[in-house]
Amino acid sequence: MSKMKLKDSKTLRLFFSSPFGGMEEEREELTRKYFPQFQHLCNSRGIQFVPVDMRWGITSEAADNAQVINICLREIDRSDVFIGFFGQRYGWHGESDELLQRNFDNAMQKYPWLVNYRGKSVTELEFLHGHLNNPGAIPASICFRDKAYDEAVQQECLAKDKKSKMVKYMAESDHSTMLMKDLIQRVKETESKCLGLLLDYKNPIEGAKFMFESVWECCKELVSGSESQVVSQLEQNRLFHDTFMAFRTSLYYGGEVYFDQLRPDSLKDHPTVLVRGSAGCGKSALLANYVKWLKESEEEINLIYHFVGCAQGTTNSKSILQRILSELQHINGTETKEDSSAAQSLAQTKVSNKFHEIFLKVKTEMQQASSNGKNVLIIIDGLEKVNASSKTEKHLYWIPEEFPPGVSLIVSTENTDLNTIDLLVHQKHFYDIEILPLDTVTQEIISKETLLIKGKELSPHQLERIVRVEQTKNPLFLKIVLSEISIYGYFRLLDKKIDSLIYCDGVKDLLTKVLERLEEDYNSNNLNSPLVQQVLSAIAVSHCGLSEEELVKMFCLSSTSWSPFYFSMEIFFIKHEGLLRFAFLEFENAVKERYLKSPDEREVAIKKLVNYFEKQRQNDIQTPEMLFSMVIRRVAEELPYLQSEINDKHGLIKTLSDVRIFHVLEKKNEYEIIDLLNCTGCKQDEIVELLFASYDKAITHLYNYQQENETINEEPPGYLLMPVLESMKKIFSIANYHRAHVKTLLRIINILEGIHNKVNDTIRQTKLRENRYFLACAYVDNTEYDKAQELHESVMMECRNMLELIKEDKVIKQTLAYTCNGLGILHLKQQHYEEAESLLKESQRLHTEIENELCAAEAVQNLGIAKLETNQPDVALKHFQEAMKVFESVYFGHLPLEVGNLLTNMALCYRRMEDFDLAEAMYQRSLQVKAKAVGWNHEVIATCYMNLGTLEFYRKNNCKAEEYTRKAIEIYEKNEVKLEQNEMWMAQENLVANLIAQEKWEEALPIFLKVFKLVKKENLIDQASASIHREMIRYMTHVKMFEESADVAICHINSHKQRQPIFYLLLDFCDRQAALSSESQPPKRDKTLSVRYALEEIWPGNNELTAYIAQTYLVPDNNLAELLTLVNKMDEMNPNFTWTCYKVAEEWCADNKKMALAVLTKGLEKYPDSSYLKSKLFDCHRDLKQFTEAYSLVKEVIASEPDNQALLLVAGDVACKTGDLELCMELWAKVSLMPDTNLSQMAKSALKNIQDYLDSEDKTNT
């Protein structure tokens, strides 16, 4: 017997064949005792078990439509194992039975061999199709019951007058007995091809046991996927797509016009093509027939074709790209031969899991094919069906940007797939082909040929009516119409039926008619509820789709109810990974419009699924394999999303706090679980408490299980369930649940410390070091810096000591690299930049040595942060750009949170470089990336808004800055971020800055006071904004909040980092204002808080302090001696100032000219060559009317500024007043000739007055 594989890799189907009656006990025994074992076998391998029993009662609809034989044989076609039972009863047969013969007529279209067996029973037909026609093709086990058992039951029934039951155990007639004997003989002749054959089992218990034992090993082999059953992956994949194409090439017309546009010589001008059209327009059929046409042509072209959704595993981008790579390697002859060694296989697996490497290999293979002169055409049909692997995935990132000469790409999608059309046509400039409606001739041909295949024919008038309407120009619409006509059984009413179909308003309306017909056909009165509505509604509201097994169990459907309906729906279903979804969006919309129009209807449908999956969750036994249960995986895929949709917060938190569900969701997509947690409305502490309670409960269940099964000496429950804690650790870290993150890590460490000698100690020690490192990082996030530093340094020392003994231990070296990075980040937060850079460089080096490029890039990014914080944004940007190159490679096609963080850092560089526009663009990109990853209410989004607010603040767009900052605070509040956490109080402080900039002082004040109270209490003043605090001190002093002002100033004075001269001045000013206000003396303070102390002990010669003391105390008190002492000290401490110290000192004395005179005199003594001081001293003598002293400086002053018109004018005045009229007239004469008309006019006037005076004197003398 040839070995086979599962027909559906996700499902084991076992077909149970027997007559309608008399086999109830065998069925009960199998169902109660043996089927659960098959179920467990399949569950352990992630496979569904489906026993197919068509003897649960044929529905009246199936009988009326004469589809019984057809349905039974089609179920055998998709079954993996055939088991048959017979007693004495032969089953439904008879060539004179009109209904049975109609069944034959209907089934012979698909199974023409039936023509020779019209006198056989339905059960024998199953035996023929499942075994006798091709013995061994399907694994089969067959049992015939001993006649003695049936006779005993007959006697018992006769005694109890149960004639209806007795008939089931009797042969129908002598003729049926003869047919039975003939069947037994033919089966016996094939014994060598059977898994098992038992001709005379004594009772149902014996028969069921034999049946189980004979097929068990075969079923184990089927579900194990043994190597002997596996054909090459390349051939298997081709078979899926070839089968899909065969179905679409059997009847095709009208595509030749598109073939001309897609000829290989045309593709040289446009090597990338998008084929698009409405749903059902024939895109798949066009491309399938195009492939067939190319194969039959003489074109030398290598074809690679992929029809998305044609089989399981064809809908994700990685599988598509991997298949294209395999085909390209086959074309180039570069296939990698499989290595038998486990180590080599593991290495290959590791490489194949890297999507970017697959992508690069595809590009390399395309280039090689091009270089070798080979023409390659890649065809991908159905881009709208490609599933995104995560929320962070970029759209169609896996399609190469360029194709080398000779390599072309044709893809297809629906017109509703606007993102794809925009990307490919408008951005990447694909050649655009839109499929147009069918023309009349093509419609007629398709209609005739389709109906002919089904043995139907329309009159010319009927055909004309069909093709005349606009709607049938759509192939899907036409296909549905013809399908509905072909199964319509009332010829006299056919015209009316045609009209009801062709005049529907589009595909959606037509599909509503189909739903009505399905309801008539399959909503049996024997069922408790309408099958069609329930099944289709369930699929429509499901998150990922539903399996056949789930639907059958959910709605308690028999095989005879489900199978006919399923086969009738094949055109509308598509299977993704064993789950049924709708093949057409239009059909889904029609289902929703008919059955789920109101919110209440939708909620009822969802609750049905919720109840089903909740029972699955509750009933799944908690064993050591609980984390890998297929049942739990399916529950996790559906239940939380359904509960979220109907806002069932109570149910949702109960589901998410089931650690099995939590673990599966974390492995599937960590960002989605954060969204779901946010939907619960629960606070962080409540979520954490529930999860830990669930974890403890799981440990108890596992411990009890180990005791009951005497496996208590195996690995401890806490250790077995540690993957759950690892999942919690990861999610709490991403979600910024800081306290929960620390609690989880402490729990992990506690478990690892408590299982010494119970598990592999090398592994235990490694995990312990790693989690201590993670705990140190968590302490950093929780601002517990002392604990973090102690733990980081402890792990670091342990790693360094171990590396002294084992030089090249990669695991230890990796932990050391992580620890260097973690400790470096801690130093960054503490602003110890030199220590941080040293550690981060070591981390980069170690990660590079062990080829951990991502972590090396993260260390480079942190080095960039260090440069950014030390005012080197240009250097920082280079680090960030280097890290981004690695991120783009590692995260190929995805934009996770890490990329968003890096974009933020790059934006910070541009802001510091004052390229605000580019900074904003980067911030906005970062915001979109992060929001897509974690949603709009995550803390990282708040950080984005904070950055945007800061940017607008620098732009002086203060209103916008305030808006962004308030958004950030709102998100922090939603995430229960306490004021004590840096993010929150710094955001509040930024808000104060925004309000100050808008002079909203009253609004800013209470926020500032709240933040300052915290900052003071937690000793965080070193991290506060000194500029904001300065402005608030001034405002509070202005509004006479003297005590509060002084408190802030003193807090800064007592901080070594934030201590600045301005705070001493502000404190002194505040105290003086308080004294003035209360008409009392200023408060007495420690001398260390005085401005004099600051000047004498901390900043000797500080010009700001000196100026304040001089202007506030010395000049008003006329204390010239101390003033000169301070100015001299300031001059000594600031040698670069030279004479400017005396210049500013003179300005302080603006209201005391005598003190100013003394300062300038002292300055000139020290700097005799200072023309500025001479000029100011000259002015000072003039102001004091000391003209003689001023005259002594005239010549030196005008020599330094010979063209200063005003100076020459006043110098002339001094000369005049001291009697040097000659010099006076010389200077004024010069002024009178200079440009300033006012001054020259004044000089002319003065000259005239002097001349008049001299003339007067001459006359007097004469």
Automatic annotation (TrEMBL):
GO cellular component terms attached to this protein's record: Cul4-RING E3 ubiquitin ligase complex
Annotated Gene3D superfamilies: P-loop containing nucleotide triphosphate hydrolases, Tetratricopeptide repeat domain
Boundaries of every Nephrocystin 3 helical domain copy: 450-594
Domain DUF4062 per the UniProt entry, residue ranges: 14-116
Record-annotated Nephrocystin 3-like N-terminal domain positions: 268-392
Record GO biological process: Wnt signaling pathway
Keyword check for Repeat: yes
Keywords (A to Z) from UniProt: Repeat, TPR repeat, Wnt signaling pathway
The keyword Glycosyltransferase is annotated on this UniProt entry: no
Residue spans of the TPR repeats: 857-890
Name under which the protein is recorded: Nephrocystin-3
Taxon lineage: Eukaryota, Metazoa, Spiralia, Lophotrochozoa, Mollusca
Underlying gene: 106057053
